[in-house]
Amino acid sequence: MRVAATLLLCLFTVWSSADVSSDVRAAEPATAAVDPDPIVMLFELVVEADAETAKKCLAVLTEKIQSREIAGKALDDLRPRLQPTLNKILSGKTDAPLYLDAALLATTWKDPAAIDAVRKVFLAVEGQSPERRLQSLDALVAAGDPQLLDVVSRTLANTKQNPPALRGAVLAALGRMEDTHVADVVLAHFNQLEPDLQPKAIELLTQRTAWSKSLLEAIGSNQIPAGALNANQVAKLLESRDEELRKLVVAKWGSVRTERNPQREQVIAEMRLLVRSAPGDPHKGQIVFNKVCGQCHKIYGEGQEVGPDITANGRASFEQLLSNVFDPSLVIGASYQARTIITSDGRVLTGLLAEDSEQRVVLKMQGGKLETVARDDVEEMKVSNLSLMPEGLEKQLQPQELADLFAFLTLDKPPADPDARYLPGTKESDSK
Q1: What phi and psi, each to the nearest 5 degrees, are found at residue 421?
Q2: pLDDT confidence of residue 384
C-alpha cells in the first residue's frame, strides 16, 4: 500500500499540473488530457489505508482549485467523481483525520455544509492552529462565502486573540476577493493595525480599482496619510486601465518616474550628513526596520525573505548601505526585477517572479506571501525597471526614525550583542 500511496501522490500532482485549467484547452486533442478516473479510484483505496497521503492529495487539489489551475470543464468533471468519497468522510466524526481536509476541498467548490464547518474552524481562536485557520480562510475566499467579510472584520477587531502574524496573513488572503466592501472593512480597522501591518493593508488595497478609489478617498479625507503609499504603489495605480483612478492619482501625486532617478545621488549626500550628525537609538531602529524594511527583508532571522537577507548582504560598508537604501534601483540583480501582473478579473499584483510555467505564474509578494495565478488568468505581465524596494524612504520616515534605523543597520550584529561594531565608514573619521 505504501507504494500505491506514493504513486497516487505523484499522479495527483502530475494530473493537477496538466493542461486541465481551461475550457479552451479542453477542446484540444484528447491526448492533451489525463483521465482522472483511475486516480480517483486509487484515492478511494488510499483513504481507507493511508490518511497522511490522502491528506496530501486533498491539499494538492484544494490549492490547484483555489488558484484556478483546475477550473472550468476539468473541475466540473472532477467534482462528481470525488463527491461520494468526500461525503463519506464528512458524514463521519469532525475530529477524524481527514475531516477538515475534505471540508476544505468541498468548501472550495461551494458545498454549503462544508462552508459552515470551515467557517467555524476559522473563527476558533482556541483549539485550531493558525495554519489551519488560514487554510480555512483561503477556502472561504475561494467559495465566495457571503458571511466572510463580517467574519474578517471580527477577526481584525479582536487583537487580543488574533496575533499580528495571523491578521497580516488574513489581509494578504483577501486579495482574491472581488467584493468592493473589502476596502470598507480594511479601512475601518486601518488605524488600529500595528505599524508593520499597515503596509500589508495598503498593498492589498492597491490591487483592485474599486479598493484603490476607496483608499484615495480615505487619503483625501485625511483618514490615512498620503505617505502610507510608497512610490512603487503610486506608479502601479498610474498604470491602471481605469481613467478615473489615474486622474485621482495624478491630482494627488503628479507624475511618477518609471526609471531610476539620477538625482538620488544628491539624496544620498543629504542622508549621509543626517545619519552621521543625528544620534540614533538602534533598539528603536529595529522597530522601524520591522515596520518598513521587514516586509521584504530578513535580518538576524527576522522579517520576510522577499528581497535579499541583509544580515550578510548589501551592508559591506556604510556607503554600500546608503546606496542600497536610498538608491535601490541603481543596481538590480536579475532575480530581483519586479514583475507586475494584471489578471483577467482586474487584479494588479507586483512582486518577484518565483515560478513561470505553462500552468501558472507565482509571485513572491511584499510580506512574503506567494501568490499563484493560473496562466489562463494572466492578461499581462511586465518587468519593471525599478526595484521592488521603492525610492523615497526619506519621505516616508521622520528624520529621527531614519537616524534610529541607521543606528540599527550600521551595526554588524544585533544591538543587544555586546560585540556589535559599526560597519566600516559609518563614522566620518572611518572614511578618511
Answers
A1: -130, 155
A2: 82
